[in-house]
Amino acid sequence: MVNRKRKHGIFAVNGDVVVLSNSKDARDDCMQISYALDTVFNQMRIAGNRPRTIESYEYIFKQFVGVCRIEYVEDINLDKLYHYLDVLAVTPATKLIRLKSIKAVLSKFYNNGWVKDRFWSNIQIKIDKEVKKGARQSDIEKLLQLIDQTTFIGFRDAAAIKLMYKTGIRIRTLGELRERHIDFENFCLNLDGSTLKNHKFLKLPIDEEVVEMLKLLIQLNNGIRAHFDMDNHYIFITQNGSPMNNSKSSNCAISKQLHKYAKRFNLENINAHAIRRAYAKNLYSKGASIALISKALGHSNLEVTTQYLDLDVNEVATNLRDYL
To answer: What is the mean pLDDT of the segment spanning 41-69?
Structure first.
């Protein structure tokens, strides 16, 4: 059974997507893709991978086997991978996203012993990486002055912006924050693995201003939840008392608000990711080491952190001279 192509953001492709049956024994000596995928994605769920990540892997991999007409794990080879990448009418950056997803699933196949070698390892797609800029401190301060903090939405957004700029947490983590994650006595966030992308515990300091804003926000939240009969302990909620992370999309209420503010106040680079980068740049300008900044951001390697810092060539040379 074949479903025709549908628009799916970066997942759009010129070809057909096959809806796979879920049988293991259609060919006695081979494993069907559908059975293998079910097993792998169950393993990922047990390991704690996010549903959104699993959904992306599933869509892209089924797209790959659909375009190449692959039914069995044993039929996957280098030629089919190259064919899939060749027919994609997308940018190199998008191809790279697809390739990484397919490689991740194939690595699971390899770990389960279903394929004998990692033939996909040497496939590379080179792209010119666009360095994303961090928000300027002056723009963040201007935004906080312009937001109407006499309303619940305005105060909530201001608290979120302050917290993101002072801690560098991701917008997804912001939406997962609960009251138990705030240590008001010791002025810090205690973030367990469920709130973070890398699933590791992280402790981040916060200042007195942020603490007072969070205390007041919790009071406002209690009134809203009581009015709408909502039962949760999230720090950042909607005006109806619901959690912000109630969908698979990372485009939560505060992300949308930041987009509106940027347009309304003519601010060029105001979004959650830009604020996170501004946090990293601010730490670096105050003398924090790249290793410390990387730990605070929850990065798995220093390379990602250096990209966040967006260091100027002359700035690097000047700093290196101090070590000669």
So the answer is: 92
What pLDDT does 93 receive? 84
Which pLDDT value is given to residue 27? Answer: 56
Which two structure tokens, joined as six digits, stand for 100? 């990484």
Residue 19 has pLDDT above 50, yes or no: no
**281-287, long-range: CB < 8 A, 24+ apart:** 281/134, 281/308, 281/309, 281/310, 282/137, 282/165, 283/168, 284/309
DSSP of 159-177: HHHHHHHHH---HHHHHH-
C-alpha span between 170 and 164 (Å, rounded): 7
218 vs 176: CA distance, rounded Å: 14
Write out pLDDT tens, residues 109-165: 999 999 989 999 888 887 666 667 889 999 999 999 999 999 999 999 999 999 999
Among 67, 58, 3, residue whose Cα is nearest residue 36: 58
* Number of domains present in the structure of the chain: 2
CATH of the domain at 176: 1.10.443.10
> In which domain, by residue range, is 198 found?
137-321
Q: Domain boundary residue among 111, 127, 155?
A: 111
Half-sphere exposure of 43 (CA within 13 A, CB side): 13
- Give the pLDDT of residue 2: 37
